[in-house]
Amino acid sequence: MSLQKQVSVEKFKSKRAKLGIVGLGYVGLPLMLRYNAIGYNVLGIDIDESKVERLNAGQSYIEHIAAEKVLAARQSGFEATTDFSRASECDALILCVPTPLNKYREPDMSFVINTTDALKPYVRSGQVISLESTTYPGTTEEELLPRIQESGLVVGEDIFLVYSPEREDPGNPDFETRTIPKVIGGHTPACLEVGIALYEQAIDRVVPVSSTKAAEMTKLLENIHRAVNIGLVNEMKIVADRMGIDIFEVVDAAATKPFGFTAYYPGPGLGGHCIPIDPFYLTWKAREYGLHTRFIELSGEVNQAMPEYVVGKLMDGLNDQGKPLKGSKVLVLGIAYKKNVDDMRESPSVEIMELLEAKGCDIAYSDPHVPVFPKMREHHFTLSSEPVTAQNLARFDAVVLATDHDKFDYKLISDNCKLIVDSRGKYRQPAAHIIKA
């Protein structure tokens, strides 16, 4: 064991290491809380001054993360900063930054590249740098490795480079950061050894793989598996609907098979920071190798068409009542990308809102987790959440159930709405004013 590797491993195992978490969002913030809770000195680094100010004041800006936890972390030594030069204080730098798509549906690596460039002057011997952002196979080697090597440090001897994909599932009460197994790949065997020492203190099970590329591909496979299966069941939903069959009843029945079947349920499209995006990372990279990932791209086309399908169902429902879509008052129920969270990233609900607005609808929304429509990079609505009361529901010509939060009173909604377009299968009993979408 090289001396530097030995020193680094022992620092992590003894919890004498200081950790820097770069990007304090849905991935970075829970990771910070976990490391802080087990006794590490943690520094949070983010470019968003408002986030840093709120964290340093002991406040949370993510609904499912209690402010009390942030305050406790603050009181036990956690600090947030926008000063990237302080990265030199840290023995580990864990990068949890966004990897969205650009307008051409190609990987936007600007956050990863800009963050690495901002850290580059401050990297030093003994550090481990871990990328957790979901990305295409080869990112760690092609983007991070050459930038780190510019410092003159030898990766695998002086400094250590790993890729360990995040696996957060916001709002899922059955799992937390500690209990979700952590896949990790190192640029060299020494990098992997130091990376394991970093993560095994905080995570119950660490799963080493042979390379950073294998770890990057693992994350893509996990999410593409979901995207493809959701695309399949969304397509089957359309077929079943045309045949007069309830797809939710069918999936429930199929799920009783104790082997060889996993239940996936249809919806209004894909949302979140991974499932709608990750397939495009692989299809983009595959083209470099002369490959065309037809199966993956087809599922993407199916899922992207779902908001239009929901709007089409709404048009049919209004038409049956002698009302045009243009000028109708429509309430979208739930604008987070999935139930019981406040996460708006890539939410199909927002796309439905935009489609309806473009067709002349008078749009409103109700979401108990999103009281005011947030500032987003691509979507702009100046709206606040409508109260779900009998009197207010009766004002609308139709409601579109886009995200099935548990906080909604579904009986109240059914009793007081003229028309419900249900894209989540919450209403299983047929009713004249409920359309399954």
Description:
There is one protein chain. The chain has 437 residues and is of the alpha/beta class. The chain has 3 domains: 3-210, NAD(P)-binding Rossmann-like Domain (Rossmann fold); 220-302, N-(1-d-carboxylethyl)-l-norvaline Dehydrogenase, domain 2 (Orthogonal Bundle); 305-436, Rossmann fold (3-Layer(aba) Sandwich). It has 15 helices and 13 strands. Helix 7 (189-199) links the parallel strand 7 and strand 8 (206-209). The N and C termini lie far apart (60 Å).
Stretches where pLDDT is under 50 for at least 5 consecutive residues are none
Shape, please?
globular
Looking at the overall shape, the CATH architecture of the largest domain is 3-Layer(aba) Sandwich
H-E string: HEHEHHEEHEHEEHEHHHHHEHEHEHEE
The helical percent reads: 25-40%
Q: Could you name the CATH homologous superfamily of the largest domain? A: NAD(P)-binding Rossmann-like Domain
Number of domains: 3
SSE class: alpha/beta
What is the CATH topology descriptor of the largest domain? Rossmann fold
Distance between the termini: 60 Å
Count the helices. How many? Answer: 15
How many strands? 13
The first-level CATH class of the largest domain is given as: Alpha Beta
Q: Taking all residues together, what is the mean pLDDT?
A: 94
Largest sheet: 8 strands, mixed
What Rg do the Cα atoms give?
24 Å
